[in-house]
Amino acid sequence: MFQTFEVTSSPDTGPARLAAVRAEMSARKLDGFLVPRADRFQGEYVASCDERLSWLTGFTGSAGFSCVLNDIAGVFIDGRYRVQVRDQVADVFTPVHWPEVQLADWLKEQLPEGGVVGFDPWLYSVGQIRDLRGKLDRTGIKLVGHTNLVDAVWEDRPAPPRKPICIQPDELAGERFEDKCSRLGTALEKDGLRRAFIALPDSICWLLNIRGSDIPRNPVMQAYAILDWTDHVHLFTDAKIDADVAAHLSDEMDLVTTYPLNDLAGFFAKAERATFQIDPATTPQAVLDLLEAKRAVDQSVQIVEGPDPCILPKARKNAVEVGGSRAAHLRDGAAMVRFLTWLDAEAPKGDLTEIDVVTALEGFRRDTNVLQDISFETISGAGPNGAIVHYRVNEDTNRVVTPGDLLLVDSGGQYLDGTTDITRTIAIGDIGGDEKTCFTRVLQGMIAISRVRFPKGVAGSDLDALARYPLWLAGQDYDHGTGHGVGSYLSVHEGPQGLSRRAKTPLEVGMILSNEPGYYREGDFGIRIENLIVVREADAVTGCDARAMLDFETLTYVPLDRRLIDATLLTRDEQAWIDQYHSDTLQKIGPLVDGSALAWLQAACAPL
């Protein structure tokens, strides 16, 4: 199994660990210290050695941070984790609703006389520190870069990963890495730049057509890179590079020079007559500090700001990558249908647990014989556990899937040709009318995104409300974005594209996103429905002044639970969309399954 179910943290450990950090603060004359859930590569998913927030507080969510002061230790979490955090942290920690409460405002309230707050400059981006310092200006609160206090007291901290790199073949990448380096290097030269610093491992993997295994569920290695205007790449990593990967990187053009990760500081120290571009959104503050120290003694070194040169090209999937994603989703869809066939047969017996569900689903994906990993920890939440948005079942929380429950299953697979992510909410036995009504509203929001047409230049923030409108009419909502970007056998969460209020990047052809509205009733049930979609050129329409438009192609084909749909709430167009989706699902997935799975699929795809 890729997924395990052991309890990885406990509230009981929090008080002693918090006391140890505070002792370090006192010894170093700090009034506070920031502990993010981040690594020095600004990743959402981190290696075990970088799980500082979980180690300190017990909170295991994928986003959040703590601010430890002498008299209070806040754990800042967004709407996805407000139920979870209460179960995971001891009462020495204070949950803080973020972003409603901003860190700067909280610090002003807690340190009215000012103070010195430390942070690890490798774990915060230039933009984050600049923004926070700006908000603390003239408050008497000083933010200072510091060695990591958690590392100082974490005695059994795991070693950093040093796992092998592998090649992503050109026939799956759709473009030779030499050609990527050439076009991005040419763009640097055109802009009068000589070097661009790249902090994101998935950007580096995309650029060089390689993949790694340093981070669970994400096929990336821990690395930094510097792209020269001459197309040359300086790669800093401790991951293992075998002879085949070395030959791939050198090739006949010898485009890549590799260094140990810790050689980055020495590289900057030796640099001369170079202009470095850094992305303030992804570059660690420590890197800017190194560059500014070099510039202080050598004015020939300059620093400019600009976006990661890989960020948009990576998001705009080429035709090969989109084709690979289609193939991965059909394969994954067939595995999901076999799983749902099994679930419908076994769940009504009342013997299944949430762990049984996760184990079975991973087994059906493994049966494809091409699964590389799951793309994230499978969420299997029955009844009230489904209301915990990013619930991870473990041996302590494992719940029996009981007739009358809604079961929320959010899962995905990593395949060489694509990354999948799908959520289905399933009726276990007879379900109440209120649950069906809420499910139908969520479904209406998902359909709205699936059907929308929009002009070029529209961003995800412009579309997000479409998914919420049916819920808003009932005074309901959900506290997460409607969708995130997805990589091509890379990170299941990829920027800058998205469907949320914060997603300001215009959507472009080839961008893959999730479409996943939801509704959660604490202590009762949770509902989420998720398909992946890809931006494409919309078919032309006839009519006066018709403009060129974009729309979404659906990639995910797995039946929706018709038992939860209240057709009386649907418009004729919504009913037609569901029937067409199910017809397409049967046509695409039917040839990939047989026996009881095919019979189940045929019944699940019947017209409303």
TrEMBL record:
Please identify the protein, giving its name as recorded: Aminopeptidase
Q: One MF term in GO for this entry?
A: metal ion binding
Query: What InterPro entries has UniProt attached to this entry?
Result: Creatin/AminoP/Spt16_N, Creatinase/aminopeptidase-like, Creatinase_N, Pept_M24, Pept_M24B, Peptidase_M24_C, X-Pro_aminopeptidase_P
The GO cellular component terms are: cytoplasm
Q: Which residues form the Peptidase M24 C-terminal domain?
A: 549-608
SUPFAM superfamilies registered for this protein in UniProt = Creatinase/aminopeptidase, Creatinase/prolidase N-terminal domain
Q: What class of enzyme is it?
A: hydrolase
Its keywords, alphabetically, are: Aminopeptidase, Hydrolase, Manganese, Metal-binding, Protease
Q: What species is this protein from?
A: Octadecabacter ascidiaceicola
| Membrane spanning residue stretches | none
